[in-house]
Write a structure and sequence with these properties.
Elements (H helix, E strand, L loop, with lengths): L11 H9 L11 H9 L10 E5 L4 H14 L4 E4 L11 E3 L2 E2 L2 H15 L6 H15 L4 E5 L17 E4 L7 H4 L3 H8 L9 E3 L4 H14 L3 E3 L4 E6 L2 E6 L2 E6 L6 H20 L7 H10 L7 E2 L14 E4 L5 H17 L4 E5 L7 H5 L8 E4 L11 H10 L4 E3 L3 H6 L11 E5 L2 H11 L5
Parallel strand pairs: 1-5, 1-6, 2-5, 6-7, 7-8, 13-17, 14-15, 14-17, 15-16
Antiparallel strand pairs: 2-3, 3-4, 9-10, 10-11, 12-13
Helix pairs in contact: 3-9, 3-10, 4-5, 7-8
């Protein structure tokens, strides 16, 4: 963790070191520890602003980013909780429009640590408790609450109700904790559904949707499902969102890729549904237009500007960054890059580093026939990453010309050995940890 000085001169990384030492020897997804800590803290989870709870495998962060931009365009004060962070922990907690300040964060962490009394608790649980203290203490109109892992037993799921639940597309990921099938994983994600609380559901496989529908029926939670009760699609370079209440014609999102059309549509529909539960959240049309156009989310097909890292690439090379790391993420990225290629043709070079828990072959398969070259690199830091040789072998198995490099910087340096015309388009991907290291090295700190 990076060190940030705080009031009293105590660096936040020292607090993090103490909290990490409390982590149970075995991770068991459970709400017991969180419920115990909430009680000791006076139940801040019961004093939160009206909230929208977001679970899913892919697209959670982008969907939250669209909702935040739309709400802020309407003049609303918005709290946001997301994870993981890319460069600094403060990115996870946004208080009424601003990233949490170091002194605020240190105080909340200290309060949570003292209340926990040295008992075993996961890092995500105790930092979520600190976030809830902050969200309860600072006034806001709405809280956008993103699940950390799964849903049913996630630390955020101690909240008792919501304006709306949102489930983005469900696919295979975190199989060690959530199950090995899409149906099993969907069951965990559907655990955020609350009795009588409406839920907006992104496009799902048939197996995932059946599970979500069964859980919703048990809880009498009304569902609004993409492809059934509402639609979101590109038409003539515009985003069209339509449901039984009418059609909204919006600008195409700034965020790149066909998948962002659906993420933006999901965000728009979620806010429309939330507005039915809370009239003060009935938003003017200009807020949807401005928010969809303005929304940004770092390391989601982000085109990197000038910086120390991109300067390593030969002249004319176009460098993009994405944190995608699973099969669905690979499919979405490949589709987005194919769309860019159709409009502005360039050879595509992948620079990829992945964690040991991720399926490199499943992520890389969609790029077969699209990418000219794969350069595999390690994930920086103490993360349990796959070796570059493993990633390169997975790429080669799918027909990609593959090599390795000791770092992203070295991979960019090595592009001079691949003289092609026009200069290549480079996509750095495979891990959010890798993406965070790239942003830090290039001087692009998320705000």
């Amino acid at each position: 963790m990076p060190a940030f000085p705080t009031a009293g001169g105590v660096p936040i990384d020292a607090i993090f070191t103490r909290l990490l030492a409390l982590h149970p020897k075995l991770i068991d997804l459970s709400l017991d520890r969180m419920e115990r800590l909430m009680a000791r803290l006076g139940h801040p989870e019961r004093r939160l602003p009206p909230l929208i709870h977001v679970a899913g495998t892919n697209g959670k962060g982008s969907t939250v980013a669209f909702m935040r931009a739309i709400l802020e365009a309407a003049g609303k004060r918005v709290h946001v909780y997301t994870s993981p962070h890319l460069v600094r922990f403060n990115e996870r907690i946004r208080l009424a429009g601003h990233l949490v300040e170091d002194a605020q964060l240190a105080d909340a962490l200290d309060r949570a640590e003292q209340a926990n009394g040295g008992e075993p608790i996961t890092f995500f649980e105790i930092t979520t408790a600190a976030a809830f203290l902050l969200f309860a203490d600072v006034p806001a109109d709405v809280l956008l609450l993103e699940v950390g892992l799964g849903g049913r037993l996630d630390a955020t799921n101690v909240v008792e109700t919501a304006l709306a639940s949102v489930i983005t597309p469900v696919s295979i990921d975190h199989v060690d904790f959530l199950g090995e099938t899409v149906a099993a994983i969907a069951g965990e994600k559907a655990g955020i559904l609350k009795r009588g609380v409406p839920a907006v559901i992104g496009r799902q496989s048939e197996a995932a949707l059946r599970v979500i529908e069964r859980q919703a029926a048990r809880l009498q939670a009304p569902l609004t499902i993409m492809g059934e009760q509402f639609q979101a699609h590109d038409e003539g370079g515009r985003l069209i969102v339509a449901d039984e209440n009418g059609l909204i014609d919006l600008p195409r999102p700034r965020l790149v890729g066909p998948h962002q059309i659906e993420n933006a549509g999901l965000a728009v529909e979620a806010l429309r549904v939330a507005g039915l539960a809370m009239p003060s959240l009935v938003l003017p049309s200009h807020a949807f237009e401005e928010g969809v156009r303005a929304a940004e989310w770092p390391a989601r097909l982000q085109r990197l500007g000038p910086g120390p890292l991109t300067a390593r690439a030969p002249d004319g090379v176009d460098v993009w960054l994405d944190g995608g790391h699973n099969a669905a993420g690979g499919q979405a990225l490949a589709a987005a890059l194919a769309d860019i290629e159709d409009r502005v043709p360039r050879p595509l070079v992948l620079i990829v580093g992945m964690l040991g828990t991720k399926d490199s072959g499943a992520f890389l398969a969609p790029f077969a026939g699209l990418a000219r070259e794969l350069i595999a690199v390690p994930v920086p830091g103490d993360h349990k990453g796959r070796s570059p040789e493993e990633v390169a072998a997975a790429g080669a198995a799918h027909g990609l010309s593959s090599s390795t490099a000791p770092s992203v910087a070295a991979a960019l340096d090595g592009l001079a050995a691949f003289p092609v015309t026009p200069a290549p388009r480079v996509l750095i991907a495979g891990s959010l940890y890798l993406a965070g290291a790239v942003l830090a090295e290039n001087g692009n700190l998320p705000e």
